[in-house]
Write a structure and sequence with these properties.
The protein is an alpha+beta fold. Helix content is about 30%, strand content about 35%. The chain has nine helices and 19 strands. Bound molecules: adenosine-5'-triphosphate. This is ABC-type quaternary amine transporter.
Length: about 325
Amino acid sequence: MSIEVSGLNKSFGDFVALDDVNVSLPTGQLTALLGPSGGGKSTLLRIIAGLEKADSGAVTIEGVDATHLPAQKRNVGFVFQHYAVFKHMTVAKNVAFGLEIRKRPKAEVTRRVDELLELVHLSQFGHRLPSQLSGGQRQRMALARALAVEPTVLLLDEPFGALDAKVRRELRDWLRRLHDEVHVTTVFVTHDQEEALEVADEIVVINEGRVEQVGTPDQLYDEPANDFVMSFLGEVTHLGGVTLRPHDVDVSLASSTAGAVEATITRLLRVGFEVRITARTVTGEDVAVVMTRTHARALGLAEGARVWLTPTPGAKVVRRMELVG
Ligand SMILES: Nc1ncnc2c1ncn2[C@@H]1O[C@H](COP(=O)(O)OP(=O)(O)OP(=O)(O)O)[C@@H](O)[C@H]1O
């Protein structure tokens, strides 16, 4: 294991930011810390980096107890959303900075900077100033700078948060490819579930200072440990006391199944090849249903139609913070 966090607690005044957090992050993986705003993701990352001190608990990095080590002795590289660059230095000088303060030989610094600029696809921009780069290019420069000193772990706090959606998506793909090339253990904070699902090998879901679940994107999506994880990682609806995905609601025109809930279609919307339906049950609950256009047409569904709803056989349903099927 590259990073072991055990029994970590952190409070700010009487506000508990981290509550007995335990996680093990394997070497060489790309891990996302995912959760809603204020859940404690950045606090956890900052404690791993050594920028914040925990009240209790331990952090081990590559087998070394780092709990009381200062940040600069932990061999971690980090990149934040609003990354501080040296505005008066060229891109190449920014990347070289960490190596120069470590007094590495000049030839080695030049070679390493060339390699890194190539890795982040900025070779032709080495002589520019950071202000002459786009936001996405600046973040790639920040990553090259963090990687320059060959950190054991790379910590990224919403590194693409301030960028527009298209650039964000490009950088996300690029980060995945970069990681496949260099394999440095990487932990990144995001509140964007799509970003975590697309990029990470493993996701740690954090909410209200606690780890809700750790798993691969598929495990979290298909086997959510509870209601919170299920609703954070995809669209959900509620039917008769359970939470499930809208495409897992079965619609029939007759009450043939025991336990089927009677409802009336109040809204039917075609979106591309899908049909999105809202059905109001006899108890006044609005249930969201998604099905293919072909299926909706075969059933002859329309607004005002009376239907019966059940979870599709084998559907993942979650009841009161507990997995039931
Ligand atoms: N230095 C501090 N002093 C007081 N409270 C703090 C401090 N740092 C963080 N907090 C509080 O701790 C909680 C967790 O913050 P943290 O930044 O870790 O959350 P987060 O999950 O990273 O959220 P976001 O995605 O919004 O950054 C928040 O409620 C925050 O207000």
